[in-house]
Write a structure and sequence with these properties.
- There is one protein chain.
- By secondary structure, the chain is α/β, with parallel strands linked by helices.
- Helices cover 44% and strands 15% of the residues.
- It folds into two domains: 146 residues, Periplasmic binding protein-like II (D-Maltodextrin-Binding Protein, domain 2, 3-Layer(aba) Sandwich), CATH 3.40.190.10; 136 residues, D-Maltodextrin-Binding Protein, domain 2 (3-Layer(aba) Sandwich).
- Strands 1, 2, 3, 4, 5 and 12 form a six-stranded mixed β-sheet that branches. Strands 6, 7, 8, 9, 10 and 11 form a six-stranded mixed β-sheet that branches.
- The protein is globular, with a radius of gyration of 24 Å.
Amino acid sequence: MARIWLRIQILLCGLVVITGCEWGKPEKPVLWVYTSMYKDTIQDLKTQLDQDLPGVEIKWYQAGSEEIAAKVNAELIAGHCQADVLISSDRFWYEELSDRGFLHAYRPPNGSEVPDTLRHPQGFYSTVSIPVMVMVYNGEVFSQDEVPKSFKEMADPKWKGKLTTGSPLASGTNFTTVAMLQNAYGWEYIEALRRNETISQGGNSGVLRRIQSKERPIGWVLMENLLRLQKKDKRIKTLYPADGVVIQSNVMAITKKPGESREWAEKLANWLYSKKGQEAMTRSYMYSPLASVAPPEGAPPFSDISKSAFPWTQEFLSKVVKERQDIKERFSQIMFD
């Protein structure tokens, strides 16, 4: 009996030692990333980052660009921003954050390859991938000869009841598109879309559903959404507008959140601009801002479509930053009142 009790005591001591070691094991630092990238893109990144940055636990908050902006703005008002890294597509909001002193200036080693027009001159943010807004139609409803060939042609009354877009109130890429087209064609263009009974709701996934269901067989949507479908749904056709695509800027920035997570945020930024990080972007059917990285599968060379794209100028950027809220309110009045 005494031997049995001795064995039990030895086992219990061993458990205490083992458990004590687990209790004493230091926890990994946590890095919060807020992003509007699609969930499959996040999963691809997570798989690689778990291997390449094993010393940190990366947590992801995924939502639309405008939802992310609202969440971060609310956190800043409350006095504590949880996010360490921001990746979303409303570049104008990042201009506001940098002006308000909420962003940490950092230039990743490969970040110098990003065109000057797609990054902040002081390093407060930089484009990490380039989505592109194109036109789309359902090939079971219209042939290529029948559809409008440009964004401008979508204002023609003949397309009444046929058009759909995402909403600039919910989607950063759709806000950029509306801002670009309004700047080029005036508010008369948006008013014409309203007269054509254009459905402008949600994000790009909602647009595709309306195109597929034939509720609205013509619209604009991100090229990456179409490339994801290129082998699955042959009805959905891509059209590169004659008046130019709208180049988007999927922006990455590091916040000024204090603590040791800042170092990990910089390491993540370095990884995102590495060959592996940029190839993850193209696997998600977005262009890389680095000329050395090949385009996504099924996409034309970026140089081909960028020649005639609506231009990103400092004048345009400054104008939209100043008028951002007014643009949303005016669009809402025209399309929804």
